Amino acid sequence: MGMFDWVKCEVPLPDGWEPKGLTLQTKDFYRQLDIYTITSEGRLKRKFDYEGTTPKEIDIEYHGYFRFYSTEGKVNGKKGKDWFWHEYKAKFTDGQLVVIEVIPDLEEVPYAKSDD
């Protein structure tokens, strides 16, 4: 599974999901269990909170894309799928959030059938 960083999102997610607490993760940064926050102003901040240091949060002026994701609900093997995969791609330009897009769950995407 590997290490990851946490993501908090203060802007509405495009599918309307409202995750509670630290549930979103990403593997697109340093994977040190740091906390990244997409602020309500559309900035990306990284929280530094290491033992022996004073916690601080800085605007990292991010430029580019990163993906983040989580699950909602619980897996109940006998009753079927009672959970949902949420995955997103955020685009930042010159430190400012441009858009958050939903990445579709491949299990939910219908495949085109060939006539061959």
Q: What order do the helices and strands come in, and which of them pair?
A:
Elements: E1 5-9, E2 24-26, E3 35-38, E4 44-48, E5 56-59, E6 64-73, E7 83-93, E8 96-102
Parallel strand pairs: 1-3
Antiparallel strand pairs: 1-2, 3-4, 4-5, 6-7, 7-8
Description of the structure:
With 116 residues, this protein is an all-beta fold. It is globular. It has a 5-stranded mixed beta sheet with strand order 2-1-3-4-5, with no helix packed on it. The protein has a 3-stranded antiparallel beta sheet with strand order 6-7-8, with no helix packed on it. Helices cover 0% and strands 42% of the residues.
Helix content: under 10%
Number of strands: 8
> Kindly, what is the distance between the CA atoms of the first and last residues, rounded to a whole number of angstroms?
39 Å
Can you tell me the overall shape?
globular
For the CA atoms, what is the radius of gyration? 17 Å
**SS content category:** mainly beta
Number of helices: 0
Strand order of the largest sheet: 2-1-3-4-5
- Biggest sheet features: 5 strands, mixed
Portion in beta strands:
35-45%
User: Which stretches of 5+ consecutive residues score pLDDT under 50?
Assistant: none
Chain-averaged pLDDT: 88
| Total individual domains | 1
Secondary-structure element string: EEEEEEEE
